[in-house]
Specification:
alpha/beta; Rossmann fold; eight-stranded mixed β-sheet; 12% strand; globular; binds NADP nicotinamide-adenine-dinucleotide phosphate
Length: 266
């Protein structure tokens, strides 16, 4: 079991549905949170939400747009310049959007945001993780990363999303193999009606009319964000190197989280 009390943890996507639920849990356990964000208005909202429940929470909100390589490098450089140990990284930010979008550098957007940028951030921050006495890197993945066809990027939004999630898992596992001193752990939340399905305004993977019908239905059928986010906290606290926390119930969508070796699911 990993204590998170007074641990310095970087959590991406804290402004999102599952990220906010996870951030609240990390604060409850006494972690200091670095919450990189791309939208200052949402950062302020998140700060208020966290401080309302945990007035003493130690929080910072540096800028990060995972679509933009320059901000990834500048966040890493500013943390390296501070020179403080980093106890954990939680790669929670993610995008699911329409096909055909590219990041400013020209890479397909899912691959940039969901795979390449988290990978680069991890590699750049290794010196700070190595300064911690129990460092971990937690990758929030998706059931779609375990689909057989996920290894071959399709053209649909779902195919592109699954391929990017799969690619991050594979690359992070390659990295982990050479770094035994850091625990690489994994989590997926099952399925939950979150902001993921809305993407940036006008850029959602599904037509708005469909989402107006589907999202309320999804909210009724699938677990709440608080329940879905339990896998993230479970992995942070209980997972050993190479373990995945996922809902243990029907189709790995419902139920309390349980641990399984990631290898068995790949
Ligand atoms: N919901 C599900 O059913 C489900 C299932 C499996 C896995 N997941 C995974 O769970 C994680 C959390 O997703 P969620 O469901 O909570 O979705 P969400 O509410 O849309 O949250 C996504 C988060 O990622 C951030 N983000 C997106 N693009 C970014 C960028 N270019 N740079 C920096 N941050 C960016 C968003 O920032 P803004 O607030 O600024 O938009 C937001 O904080 C994701 O990795 C997702 O793939 C979700």
């Amino acid at each position: 079991m990993r204590s998170l009390t007074d641990k310095r943890i970087l959590l991406t996507g804290g402004t999102g549905t599952l990220g906010t639920a996870a951030a609240l849990q990390f604060c409850r356990l006494g972690a200091e949170l670095i919450l990189p964000v791309r939208n200052p208005r949402k950062a302020e909202q998140l700060r208020r939400t966290l401080l309302a429940k945990f007035p003493g929470a130690r929080l910072s909100f540096p800028a990060l747009d995972l679509a933009d390589e320059a901000t990834v490098l500048s966040l890493a450089d500013s943390l390296l310049a501070q020179g403080k140990p980093l106890d954990g990284i939680v790669h929670n930010a993610g995008v699911f959007t329409r096909s055909g979008r590219t990041a400013p550098g020209g890479t397909e957007i899912h691959m940039q945001v969901n795979c390449l940028s988290p990978l680069w951030l991890t590699v750049r921050l290794l010196p700070l993780l190595r300064m911690s006495d129990s460092p971990f890197v937690l990758t929030v993945t998706s059931l779609s990363a375990f689909w057989r066809r996920a290894s071959v990027p399709g053209k649909s939004p779902t195919g592109l999303y699954a391929a990017s999630k799969r690619a991050l898992l594979e690359r992070i596992c390659d990295l982990a193999a050479g770094i035994p001193e850091i625990d690489f752990v994994y989590a997926h939340p099952g399925v939950c009606a979150t902001g993921l399905f809305l993407a940036d305004p006008g850029q959602s993977a599904y037509p708005p009319a469909f989402l107006r019908l589907a999202l309320p239905l999804m909210k009724r059928i699938f677990p709440s964000p608080e329940k879905a986010a339990r896998s993230i906290l479970h992995a942070a606290v209980y997972a050993a190197d190479g373990q995945l926390a996922e809902p243990r119930g029907l189709l790995h969508i419902w139920g309390k989280p349980a641990l399984t070796p990631l290898d068995e699911r790949l």
